[in-house]
TrEMBL record:
It comes from Streptomyces kasugaensis. The keyword Iron applies. CDD domains: Radical_SAM. InterPro entries: 4Fe4S-binding_SPASM_dom (IPR023885), Aldolase_TIM (IPR013785), Radical_SAM_PqqE_MftC-like (IPR050377), rSAM (IPR007197), rSAM_sf (IPR058240). This is Radical SAM protein. Residues 202-248 form the 4Fe4S-binding SPASM domain. It holds the Pfam family Radical_SAM.
Length: 302
């Protein structure tokens, strides 16, 4: 598929591997021992400009925990100035006052993960005491400031109060509550290396991810498939390069072209054609998804 047929519309910008939580299921293997990587502020600004130049529409700042990155405000402001739509995926435990101001000034959308209506259960998942209280309080603050907010309930443990978590977010006023299962990447893999078959199939389709060392991946989960590095190659050249073509062909060979039509809402600010997964907190199989929400296959929690 040529770049003309596969326009780059969205990018995850993983600005840091540092996180104040230490979740067992973290696909990025982030932790309090993580670093901000090799990308300087100027490197990130150049990437943002390159994204705007190729016609991208949206960026999502992720980590690690992006609010721990000291220059997040500067990068958000820069992205806003290029016309990109911005979402920040945060655990919402560490939002400074000046960040709230930037969120409102730059029309930032927020997304967060939520594991239970029970503070004890939520904190067991994050391994951070008080995380439930802080996340919930900042969800309420975001809503009070009219900041658009998505919630994602990830099924991590058997017997987890996922339905109650989804209802709790809805009761707070969160209008979009998605669900996802633990995916066997990063710490959640517990050792085995991922393969193309472990991906959902829509990686590299109109989207890419860029890590704190400058590596470009076909998605946040496909970080074992490096397409290039923005520190030595312009993003447009990486997107249109031979490695990108090889990876795209490999993904299509395993999953088929139809897999690219569905997008898991936990990881992206847009979703189609199925719409947000219902809060049964299972998984949506893109290979079995059709053109309407009722045809999406939602599996049992794992």
């Amino acid at each position: 598929m040529s770049t003309a047929q596969n326009r780059l519309k969205f990018a995850w910008l993983e600005v840091t591997g540092l996180c104040n939580e230490f979740c067992d299921h973290c696909y990025a293997d982030s932790s309090p021992k993580g670093t901000h990587g090799d990308m300087t502020v100027q490197d990130w600004k150049l990437v943002i400009e390159q994204l705007a130049d190729v016609g991208a529409l949206d960026v999502q700042f992720i980590g690690g925990e992006p609010t721990l990155y000291p220059h997040l405000r500067e990068l958000i402001t820069h992205a806003h100035g290029t016309g990109l739509s911005i979402e920040v995926f945060s655990n919402m435990t560490h939002i400074r006052d000046e960040l709230w101001e930037t969120f409102t000034d730059c029309e930032v959308k927020l997304a967060t993960s939520y594991y239970s209506d029970s503070a004890q259960e939520h904190d067991r998942v994050t391994r951070l005491r008080g995380s439930h209280r802080r996340t919930r309080a900042n969800v309420e603050k975001a809503l009070s400031l009219d900041i658009p907010l998505r919630g994602g309930v990830v099924a991590v443990r058997e017997g987890q109060r996922v339905q109650e978590a989804a209802r709790d977010l809805a009761a707070l006023g969160v209008g979009q509550v998605g669900g996802d299962r633990t995916r066997a990447f990063g710490r959640a893999s517990k050792g085995p290396s991922p393969t193309l078959g472990d991906l959902c199939g829509h990686c590299a389709h109109e989207k890419c991810a860029i890590g704190p060392a400058g590596d470009v991946w076909p998605c946040v989960l496909g970080r074992f498939l490096t397409l290039g590095n923005v520190l030595d190659t312009p993003l447009a050249d990486i997107w249109g390069g031979t490695r990108m073509a090889e990876v795209s062909a490999g993904i299509s060979a395993v999953h088929g072209e139809g897999a690219q039509s569905c997008t898991p809402p936990q990881f992206l600010p847009m979703c189609g054609p199925c719409g947000p997964c219902v809060p049964s907190v299972g998984h949506c199989d893109p290979r079995e998804a059709g053109g309407a929400a009722t045809t999406a296959t939602i599996g049992a929690p794992v």
